[in-house]
Amino acid sequence: MSADDDKKAAARRALEWVKPGMRLGLGTGSTAEKFVAALGDKVAQGLDVVCVPTSERTAAQAAALSIPLTTLEDTPQLDLTVDGADEVDGALRLIKGGGGALLREKIVAAASTSMLVIADGSKLVDRLGKFPLPVEVVPFGLGATRILVGRALSDCGIDGAPVILRTDTEGAPFVTDGGHYILDCACEAIPDAEALADALVAIPGVVEHGLFLGLCDTVVIGAGGETRVLTA
Ligand SMILES: O=C[C@H](O)[C@H](O)[C@H](O)COP(=O)(O)O
C-alpha cells in the first residue's frame, strides 16, 4: 500500500461523517483532493450538500465535479470541514499550509462546527515542528517581518531556525490566494505550540500561521490499507 492508497482510504472513510443537507468546508492538498473526488461521486449519485472551498485549486476541482459551491458570505456557518494536514500530534494539534492554503483553511475550519482531518500515517508525530511551519505574511515590510518572526521563534525556545521565503518554480516569491507571501520556519521541534502561536499573531506583518490548535476534533488515518479514527 502506497501513501497515496492510504490517503485515498482515509478520504473515502471520511464520507461516513457527511450527511445529506450538510454545509461543508473543502480542504486543499493531495489528500483533500481525494476527498473532493469521492464527494463528487456521491453528489453525482444525488447527495445534497453545499460546500465552501479553501483554495482556488479546490474550487476548480469541485466545480468540475458539479459539487454545489457557496461562500462564507452566503453561508457563514458550516457543519463540517474535511482537510488534510502536514503534521498531526497526539492532542490533534496540526501544522498546515504546505500547499499555501493555510489562511483560507483556518477561516473555513473556524467557521465549522467540526473539523475532520484525513491523512496517511506519515503525518502522525510525537512533537510538532519537523515539517517547516508556514507563516503567511504581507509583502510590505517583508525584511522586518522576517526578523520579528525569527525573534518570536527564539523567544519560544527555537534558536537559529532558518526562516525561508517560499518561492515558486521560477524562483519568484510564492503568492497565496490572498496575495501574501509565506515564510517557512525550519523549527525542527516546537516546544510550546500555544506560546509560539500567540507570539506570531502579535507580529503586525503576520497574517496567519500554520499552527491549528483546538480546531480539529477528529482525524482519520489511513495506514497499510486500513483506517483508524482519533478523536479529541
Ligand atoms: O496548504 C495546504 C494544506 O494545509 C494541506 O492540507 C496540507 O499541506 C497537506 O497536504 P497533503 O494532503 O498534500 O499532504
Automatic annotation (TrEMBL):
SUPFAM superfamilies assigned to the protein according to its UniProt record, in alphabetical order: D-ribose-5-phosphate isomerase (RpiA), lid domain, NagB/RpiA/CoA transferase-like
Which reaction equations make up its catalytic activity? aldehydo-D-ribose 5-phosphate = D-ribulose 5-phosphate
Domain of life according to the entry = Bacteria
Q: Which residues form a coiled coil?
A: none
Q: Print the keywords alphabetically.
A: Isomerase
Q: What residues make up the catalytic site?
A: E105 (proton acceptor)
Amino acids binding substrate: T28, G29, S30, T31, D83, G84, A85, D86, K96, G97, G98, G99, K123
One GO biological-process annotation of the entry reads: pentose-phosphate shunt, non-oxidative branch
Q: Name one GO molecular function term.
A: ribose-5-phosphate isomerase activity
Pathway in which this enzyme or protein is active: Carbohydrate degradation; pentose phosphate pathway; D-ribose 5-phosphate from D-ribulose 5-phosphate (non-oxidative stage): step 1/1
* Keyword Ribonucleoprotein in annotation: no
Q: What is its EC number?
A: 5.3.1.6
Q: What does this protein do?
A: Catalyzes the reversible conversion of ribose-5-phosphate to ribulose 5-phosphate.
Quaternary structure annotation from Swiss-Prot or TrEMBL: Homodimer.
Annotated family: Belongs to the ribose 5-phosphate isomerase family.
Q: Which NCBIfam families match?
A: PRK00702.1, rpiA
* UniProt protein name: Ribose-5-phosphate isomerase A
What is the organism of origin for this protein? Futiania mangrovi
Question: In the UniProt record, what gene is named as encoding this protein?
Answer: rpiA
